[in-house]
Design a protein that fits this description.
Elements: E1 8-10, H1 13-16, E2 19-20, E3 42-44, H2 45-60, E4 64-69, H3 74-83, E5 104-110, H4 139-154, E6 158-159, E7 166-168
Parallel strand pairs: 2-4
Antiparallel strand pairs: 1-3, 4-5, 5-7, 6-7
Pfam families: Peptidase_M15
Active site: 163 (proton donor/acceptor)
Family: Belongs to the peptidase M15D family.
Length: 189
């Protein structure tokens, strides 16, 4: 099913003033192999507008966003679920991920020199320490996570408790999944 009232928009470093490192197009992800055939960074138009707000807020703080993942075809979600069928970290394909609706984004913050802020764990570190408010992490890590949380919430995104890097538009589950290769979605698999 394709949502014809919204469309996926490309996100690029030059048009959005972000750093893009789509790890699922590489072998540097939890599966150890590329999941995407091509590295396309896309978001639904409403999420793209919120991302523009987030980049402006980050820029005003002397920071930049680095995007790890955005739109994810349902076929890629299936590959992740097959590798790690744990709904704490991977959305069950029966429900669908908000990434597959084009309304979720995985990202971190870079400092003024382009170095990533220490978030305590890496992206896709599917452990308890990846939770937003995991106790016992160093104060600097807690501050960095709260800074990212504040930027993203101020821009209109919500978060999930288990992953400091994952943000999504509230109410996204009401939208249909956007299938790989459907109108407006380039084949990523």
């Amino acid at each position: 099913m394709t949502d014809t009232t919204h469309r996926l928009l490309p996100i690029t470093a030059s048009t959005h003033d972000v750093d893009i490192d789509l790890v699922y197009a590489t072998d540097r992800n939890l599966t150890g192999k590329p999941i995407y055939r091509a590295a396309h960074c896309l978001l639904l138009d409403t999420a793209e507008a919120a991302l523009r707000r987030a980049t402006g807020i980050a820029r005003d703080a002397g920071l930049k966003l680095r995007i790890f993942d955005a739109y994810r075809p349902p076929q890629a979600q299936q590959a992740l679920w097959n590798f790690l069928p744990d709904p704490t970290y991977i959305a069950d394909v029966k429900i669908g991920s908000n990434h597959s609706r084009g309304t979720a984004i995985d990202l971190t913050l870079l400092d003024a020199n382009g170095a990533p802020l220490d978030m305590g764990t890496g992206f896709d570190d599917m452990t308890a320490a990846s939770a937003h408010f995991h106790p016992g992490l160093p104060h600097t890590v807690q501050r960095h996570r709260l800074l990212l949380l504040g930027i993203m919430h101020a821009a209109g995104f919500g978060h999930i408790p288990s992953e400091w890097w994952h943000y999504e538009l509230p109410g996204s589950r009401a939208l249909p999944l956007i299938d790989d290769g459907a109108a407006g979605a380039p084949a990523l698999m």
